[in-house]
Design brief:
The chain has six helices and seven strands. The chain has about 150 residues and is of the alpha+beta class. It folds into two domains: about 120 residues, no CATH class; about 30 residues, no CATH class. It starts with a helix and ends with a helix.
């Protein structure tokens, strides 16, 4: 799903839960990311970045599946960065790059294709996205209004 579609959804008050199908920083240009394949996250906030009007910062809440997501964290973060008594590599949580609340952010251009799928398969959101891929050019709110008019 494209970042611009997620931005429209969040701006319309929908905060989707997604499952990542790939490691985020391997398939996007978002820089370092703690998000790994299989993690579940709720997208809780979208902000326009100050450096480019087509870039957005997305906030991901990984605490919705805390134990699962912690188990999936990669062990490739230098531990010595924040705690000089530790040596080697560990998870982003152990290294201090991910806080205990499991909230993380990444910046994306609006045309970035995020490697994720919606978990809420029986929702209006899933129906909207299924139609969007074929013919739908409406925003999520416009689509909902059209569904109400047609029911």
């Amino acid at each position: 799903m494209y970042v611009k579609d997620i931005v429209n959804l969040v701006q319309a008050g929908k905060f989707p839960v997604v499952r990542f199908t790939e490691e985020l920083d391997e398939v996007t240009d978002c820089g370092d990311s703690v998000i790994q394949k299989g993690m579940l996250a709720k997208i809780t906030k979208v902000l326009k970045t100050p450096y480019d009007e087509d870039w957005f910062q997305l906030t991901f809440d990984l605490s919705i599946a805390r134990e699962q997501n912690i188990a999936l964290l990669s062990h490739d973060w230098r531990l010595t960065t924040l705690n000089s008594s530790l040596k080697g590599y560990g998870t982003a949580l152990e290294a201090g790059f991910l806080h205990d609340d499991l909230i993380t952010t990444n910046d994306f251009s609006d045309d970035t294709l995020l490697p994720c799928e919606f978990v809420e398969s029986d929702s209006f959101l899933a129906s909207y996205l299924a139609e969007k891929g074929s013919k739908n050019k409406l925003t999520y709110i416009e689509w909902l209004e059209e569904q109400l008019r047609n029911s």
